Structure formats: C-alpha cells, structure tokens
Amino acid sequence: MANERKFISENVRRLLLKEYLREQVSRAGFGGLDIQRTPLGTRVKLIIERPGLVIGKRGGAIRDLTTALENKFSFDHPQIEVEEVKNPSLNAQIMAYKLAESLERGWHFRRAGHSTVRRIMEAGAVGCQVVLSGKLTGQRHRVEKFKQGHIKFCGEPRVQWVEEGFAIATVKLGVIGVKVQITHPDTKLPDEITVYDSIPEEKEETPEPEAEPAEKPKEEKKAKKSRSSKKKSEKAEKKEEQAETAPKEEAKVEEAEPVAEEKAAEEKSEEPAAPVQETSAEPAPQKEGAPPSEDGAKAPEPEKESEPEVPEPPQKEEAAKEDAAESESKDSQDDKVEGGEADASAEKQ
Q: Are residues 75 and 144 in the same domain?
C-alpha cells in the first residue's frame, strides 16, 4: 500500500508541475513537457514555439523557473531544457491553445473549428479531429466534431501515431473544452498495402568496414560449419581417388616387370656365347700334313671366315643372263645335231 501511495503522489506532483509551467509559459506557446529522473538530478524538457520568451534576458527567466521548481515542488537539482517546435501546425497541444484563444476572442465555433482543421491538414497530417464541448450557442450543453482524414481511436496505432492536445476556453456563457487529435505524416497504418509492378533494383552500396562483434551471429557459424564439411568431403574424395589409382599403378608396375625381364633376356641372348669344346670318346681322323695332338687326336681346323657377298651391279647381271641364254641355245643345237647323227647311223645299219 505504501508503494501505491508513493506512485500516486509522484504523478500528482508531475501533473501540478505541468499546469504551473503551462500558465507561466502560455505566451511562448506551450507544446509539451517531459520529466526524467537522472543520477545528477531531475531533467525537465520543455517544447516551446518561441523559446526566446522562456529563456529571457541573459537566462534570467529560466533561472527563476528553476528555483521555483526546487522550492515549490521539492525536485532535487532540477535542470530545465528548452526545445523549439519545428512545425507548430503539427503539434496538437499548441493548436488546441490557439483554438481556445480564438474562441475567447469571439470567433464562431464553426469558423474556428474548420480553420484549425484546414491548417493542420495543409501542414501534411494524415488525419485530424477537433472536438468542442460546452455551451457553444445557448444555455444547453452540446458537442461539435470537425474531422478530416484518418484517425485511429484504439490499439497500438492510436498510442504510437496519434497525438492529442487539450485546452480550456472561458467565454461569457461558461467554459468550452477543446480537444485536438492529429495523425502524424510519417504514420504507417497496418491496412496500407503497396503493390509493385516490378521489383525495384537495389543500388549496390559499398559496405563500410565494421568492427567484428565478440559473439558472431548464427549465420556465420553455419557458414563456417558448411565450409568445414565441404573441406572434409573434398579430403574424403581425394583419399578415395588415391585408393582407386593405387591398384592401377601397382598393376602397371607388375606388367612392366616381366617386360623388363624379357628385354634383359633378349639382350643376353644377343651377346656372343663363348665356344664350348666337346670331348668325344673316339678320336677324330686326322688330315694329312696336320700335326698330331698330345692325346693322339687332331685339333679342329679353324673355320674359314665367309667373305661377304658383294651384290653385282645390274649391268653384269644382264650380261650373265645373256651368256646363259646363248649357252642354252648352243646346247640345244648340239643335242639336235647329235640326235640327227644317231638317226643316220641307225638307218645305215
């Protein structure tokens, strides 16, 4: 229970601070407030349309605000920062204050509401809604809404993309509440779908070298595992190829060995063999004039070297053929003569 009371008291204090700063900075265009607690103290960030009015001459106005926060609201070491609004027409709180001021100055509520919506949509908003509630034209209370564009009322898009501002306008008839809702231009709604005719080509950008993180992502680990598995598979394939080629090489070596042995045997057979002397039991007959050997057997005669035949030239061969033909013709004539003489002697007898 004590913790709940602590949270409630802290939120009440922040709400009172917001109302106080809104009154003090109303002329400068109050656009919002952000309070953060830090180890050095409390940091208060003000969003202002005209920050010069908040800072004051030589920072005198902002020093007064700082002392007031420390004394009235008991914040430890408050630090006030002022930020200028880039586009006031897209700030819901500023537009709510301006609409309330226009109603207090006597503008008709319809004219004021339509002009505010038109200004917001011309600034580029996706949607806008203005709600005026109170005694607008008479003694009876009523509510008027002015809407244009797209507005979300619930869910995550409502929290993320829709900004809301509230202000109070005091008129003769009573009090009029002003609420402004704006959907920002960079809103991405869940029902928006874009269909492309063709896939847009992505420009190739040279990636900047980044420092390698301490823990590599899972994709790099998977890539490393795939590389190691590829290397292992390549090594296994190489081993299989070596195992297949080894028996072929051994067979080639075995085939080459008998061929080498045959060549060596042929070379040995080509070498001249030493003469072998055969001793026979019976002595060989000796030729006349040859000296007898000690054992009574004659020594074998040395073989005559055969002279190489010189081929006769073609002219000599033709002459030899002609001589042979002439001798044959003469022989045949002699045979005829002898045959005739033999016949004649036979007739005489």
A: no
Number of domains in the chain: 2
**Residue that finishes a domain, picked among 146, 171, 186:** 186
Does residue 128 contact residue 152 with C-beta atoms inside 8 Å? Answer: no
Residues 171 and 150 placed together within one structural domain of the fold: yes
pLDDT at res. 183: 93
66-79 per-position pLDDT tens digit: 888 888 888 888 88
Report field, pTM of the whole predicted structure over 0.85? no
Provide the domain limits for residue 49.
Answer: 1-85
Which of 41-50, 90-99, 249-258 has the lowest average pLDDT? 249-258
How far apart are alpha carbons 226 and 222 in whole angstroms?
6
Q: What is the pLDDT of residues 47-104, one digit of tens each?
A: 888 888 888 888 888 888 888 888 888 888 888 888 888 899 999 999 999 999 999 9
